[in-house]
Prior knowledge:
Blueprint (H helix, E strand, L loop, with lengths): L16 E5 L21 H11 L4 E4 L4 H7 L6 E4 L4 E3 L14 H13 L5 E5 L2 E5 L7 H15 L2 E5 L2 E5 L5 H9 L8 E6 L5 H9 L3 E5 L9 E3 L2 H10 L2
Parallel strand pairs: 1-2, 1-9, 2-3, 9-10, 10-11
Antiparallel strand pairs: 3-4, 5-6, 6-8, 7-8
Amino acid sequence: MSESHRPAPPTGLIHGSALFLDFDGTLVELAEAPDAIRVPGELHLLLHDLADRLEGRLAIVSGRALADLDRHLPGQAIAMSGSHGMEVRLADGTQLPLALPRGVEEARAEIRAFASGREGLLVEEKPASIAVHFRRAPEREGEVLEFLGGLADRTGLRLLGGKMVGEVRPPGADKGDAVRAFLAEPVFAGARPVFVGDDLTDEHAFAAAAELGGAGILVGPERATAARYRLDGVAAVADWLRGAL
């Protein structure tokens, strides 16, 4: 969809839906490093109330690993997908198996060596991918993405770009696949999908939601997107979610 003015989503859009929420930039403000985020104190109760309101049809779909999400959202009995669709876990704890693809370990070693001599770069290791954050050194963007692109070509992995980050990961699964996987489960089946996210990596999920009769909600400034609606930022997302309860 081309860049144009998009309306805020109606509160009633949530009713009867399956709600999928990105984490960074959607539920929590972005930070210079993944561990530097501040999780709003009221977020835990909000997610609990949403899951109850939607009879379990709620899931976090994030680029973070599931183990990382668990550290920031302890005790949340809701479905989650991590690592851009590579990890999927249901609310009851059932987790689909994750097979570590070939090329990942080779990439880990090369990325560690690359980042160790370059100030401002932060390596984030996930079960099946590796990300390099350059928010503290934005002037290194071209250098980082060129290196990761060459590494992806040599190892058979895929380069995924995001906000001040590059990530190499196996080809295949993305956030749209995570949405489809959840909708195949009985608790989500037949519901209209609504996906809320801010990054380019959320576009697969926006497209999947639209294809399945639902809608995407872009968080942040206007840009070309498959989302139908838009909210200004994290605070606007929280207000909209609270208004749906």
